[in-house]
Write a structure and sequence with these properties.
Largest sheet: 7 strands, parallel
CATH superfamily of the largest domain: NAD(P)-binding Rossmann-like Domain
Strand order of the largest sheet: 3-2-1-4-5-6-7
Number of strands: 7
Number of helices: 8
Strand content: 5-15%
CATH topology of the largest domain: Rossmann fold
Structural class: alpha/beta
Radius of gyration: 18 Å
CATH architecture of the largest domain: 3-Layer(aba) Sandwich
CATH class of the largest domain: Alpha Beta
């Protein structure tokens, strides 16, 4: 895999789950990292310092709230000041809530749209000027199989992820001649903290057991009957930043065990 030495990757929602896996993969290739996310301050510092010492790269942490446009702008400004720009932007931060639409809390709808969709707009618009100046950029939006298909009781999440797909295509067209690519990776179910939290919520919403949720709801959609792994998603993300992937842009790339082949 092509070295990322000298490049900087900012990954939102990267203190756990898919985001952390992607941060680890980029650091392994020699890229500097900006971590973002919530969590225990001491644990995050241990994580940051560990990545830095293990891979011999610079790793910064920024706790910007992805629901706040002002906080996102400030985070991007700090990244530019420290590293000169963000070469690789991975929009991964996301939250979920499962409920019938007529019982869906308005505050949850607003938060999901802000964090899962609007945050990508705010990070991207802030990252592009330095990418254009450097003549290189990679924007990778971690969408979901729900960018392509729907599931009941996830109206806000599905709406946001469909929005990410459209946003990805639009920005890809805008920057296509400037050596900047914009793509979306659409994982199926990955056993991350976000998915683990969905299991009891979905069980309550559907009136079934948690075991039935895993077997008959989550993995029922994936013909392989296996969870996608964090490492599989991270490997694709790293590949999309290489010169070999320079002609892949505006792509909505499923990694979901055949889910959308139905």
């Amino acid at each position: 895999m092509q070295s990322q030495r000298g490049r900087t990757a900012l990954i939102t929602g990267s203190t756990s789950g898919i985001g952390l896996g992607i941060a680890e993969a980029f650091a392994r290739q020699g890229g500097n990292i900006v971590l973002n996310g919530f969590g225990d301050a001491a644990q995050i510092e241990t994580l940051r310092a560990g990545l830095e010492s293990k891979h011999g790269v610079q790793v910064a942490y920024d706790g910007a709230d992805m629901s706040s446009a002002a906080a996102i702008e400030a985070m991007m400004k700090r990244a530019v000041e420290r590293f000169g720009g963000v070469d690789i932007l991975v929009n991964n931060a996301g939250i979920q809530h499962v409920a019938p639409v007529d019982d869906f809390p308005v505050s949850k709808w607003d938060a999901i749209i802000a964090i899962n969709l609007s945050a990508a707009f705010h990070t991207t618009r802030a990252a592009l000027p330095a990418m254009k100046k450097r003549g290189f950029g990679r924007v990778i939006n971690i969408a979901s199989a729900h960018a392509l298909v729907a599931s009941p009781f996830k109206s806000a999440y599905v709406a946001a992820k469909h929005g990410i797909a459209g946003f990805t295509k639009t920005v890809a067209l805008e920057v296509a001649e400037q050596n900047i690519t914009v793509n979306a990776i659409c994982p199926g179910y990955v056993l991350t903290p976000l998915v683990q939290k969905q299991i009891p919520d979905t069980a309550r919403a559907r009136g079934i057991s948690e075991e039935e949720v895993v077997k008959n709801v989550l993995l029922a959609a994936q013909p392989t009957k296996k969870f996608v792994t964090v490492e599989q998603v991270a490997s694709l993300a790293v590949y999309l930043t290489t010169d070999d992937a320079a002609s892949i842009t505006g792509a909505i790339l499923p990694v979901e065990g055949g889910w959308t082949a139905h």
